Amino acid sequence: MTVSSPTSKRSDVDHIVSAIKGIQADSGTLPSERDLAERLNVKRHQLRKALAILRQSGDLMPAPARRPSTALPRYSEELVRMTNPLEVLELRLMMEPGLARLASLRASALEIARITHAATTPDDAAAGAVDLAFHLAIATGARNHLANEFYKMLRQVGVDARVRIASDAPVCPRRVGERDAEHRLIAEAIAQRDPEAAEAAMRAHLLSVQKRINARSNAGAVAA
Asked: Cell membrane: is it a keyword of this entry (predicted)?
């Protein structure tokens, strides 16, 4: 009877990891877990170990949550009713500079590539969705799972229509360009592994956002 050694098992998983990286590099996406197991001719439990290694290293996005992303936990519903946009920004100012600092130290090459890609808004993309993707990519790159979950909850609260300041004005291309320039400064600092610059650039960006929210809030108060 032949008994597999721990070393040989690790070697098998390492081989699967390399194969998955190759498929991802060639096609940009991965098939379903079932199709991937059949394609690589491996057991599902071996494939899951390899996928877990890739997610832990930041070379693969985390597995999607079972709960729909639009569903707010009960405590988030309560927060939506009791908070306002300025409180959301104050908490973002407390959290995000630190997340940017951690991302500059911990993010993988793939995570940095995602951050850099999301720093610029394509012509045919929704500006708000790109902005959210950029900040979520940084939170993921910080590699602090608890902080990442808190941050996602905070952004869920912040984008709720009951919290946002209503505006009928169309998205201003000039402002999107300014925001993208601020995002690129943050992304460049993270890519250069410069924690001080990443933290400072994120703080400056959020202070700019806070200034605009204050202006819109004051304008609404005057109109009322």
From this structure: no
Locate 83 and state its tokens.
Answer: 């908070």
Each residue's pLDDT tens digit, 106-143: 999 999 999 999 999 998 889 989 999 999 999 999 99
Non-local (6+) Cβ contacts of 209 within 8 A are: 89
pLDDT tens, residue by residue, 135-185: 999 999 999 999 999 999 898 887 775 656 555 556 788 899 999 999 999
Q: How many other CB atoms are there within 10 angstroms of residue 203's CB atom? A: 16
> What is the value of pTM for the model shown?
0.68
* CB-CB contact of 30 with 36 (8 Å): yes
Listed in order, the ranges of the chain carrying CATH 1.20.120.530 are 74-223
Tokens 């300041």, located at residue: 165
Element of type H or E holding 77: helix 74-82
**Start-end of CATH 1.10.10 domains in the chain:** 6-57
Tokens describing residue 222: 């005057």
Considering only the top CATH level, what class is 74-223? mainly alpha
6-57 carries CATH number 1.10.10? yes
- Rounded Cα–Cα distance for residues 60 and 19 (Å): 13
CB atoms within 10 A of CB 193: 14
